[in-house]
Every structure is written in structure tokens, then in C-alpha cells.
Amino acid sequence: MSATMLSGPSRPTAPSPPSPATTPTESAARSPVHEPRVRDVMARELVVCQRTDACHSVAEQMREHNVGMLPVMQGDRVVGVVTDRDLAIRHLAQNPGRVAHRSVVVCMTPEVVAIGPDAKVSEATHVMRSNGVRRLLVMEKGRLQGIVTLDDITSEVGRLAGAALVVQQALAKYYAPRKGTRESGPREEGLGVE
To answer: Is 64 within 8 Å of 49 (Cβ atoms)?
Structure first.
């Protein structure tokens, strides 16, 4: 709760009621909302593979860690990505007899779609939509920092929407007309309003 300085020690005050033309919903719509950044929703614990890894071991890693994409590394440098779809479509479907021991290089995507950790999540969804992908590598100064997925963003947006709804409902109750009057404003019981 914020405090306002009066002519003595500070004391908590109740928020000012909205003007008669402003409802809590309208106030919430105009209030500044701080959009989360990619760093707020990205996965930091990464599973990666090396470009020399065999396709079958990459598929096993994906299954073991329940992920659909792995960054492909050469040392500590990203050289591509491989998805479960890459393994199935580019490798398994085209080379059914030679699946197990071929290098992941034969089916990886060398063009990496990435975003920086300070980008807004709306920018990340735009990059995903523009490139037809659901996962982005998060890179900073040429180094892999994490992965952000459409599911990560959707979960965060859902969490924020749920929190906003709770606040909106609380404000609506707080500023609801008092029983027997047409006046709205802070309730006096137990709020320290004089």
C-alpha cells in the first residue's frame, strides 16, 4: 500500500475512487502494463546435441527430456537446430534403411531463427509467426542463452490474464455502489478510510 505524507508522519491512504465516468475496467484498460520479456519466460536449462551426434541418439534425447527441438552445436557455437519433425520428415521418411547412425547434420536446419532475451514476448510471437516456427533460440552476443516456445508464451499470458481478472473483480467489488445508495467509492468498513 502506498503512503502519502501529511503534516506529520506518513499514514496509509485508500486509493482515490475513479471519476464517475471511469469504471474499474476502463481504468485497467488505460493503466500501463509491463509486457514480459523473453528472458521472463524462456527455458534456461537446455538440452543440446553436437553436430556429430547420430540421429537416433538425438531422437532419444528428445524423448528422454520431452522436447521437440534441440540446438545443434559445434563446440560452443550454434550451427543449426533439429526438430522432431526434421528427424521424421527429412531423415526417417527419406532414408528408412539408414536411420540409426547418420549424423544429425543430414536433417538439421542450418538457418537458426533467434531472438534476444530483452525482446518483448509480442515480438517473439511476431518472429515465430513470420518464420512459421513455434520455438526460438534466445541468443545474446552470439551465445545461446535459452529457448522460448509458443507454449511458454501462452502459459505466461494466461497467468497474467488470470491475475488481471482477479484484480479487476476485486476493484469492481471495492468500487461497487454502497447498499441503499447510488454512490460508489471505497468501502469504509475496515479500510481505514475516514
So the answer is: no
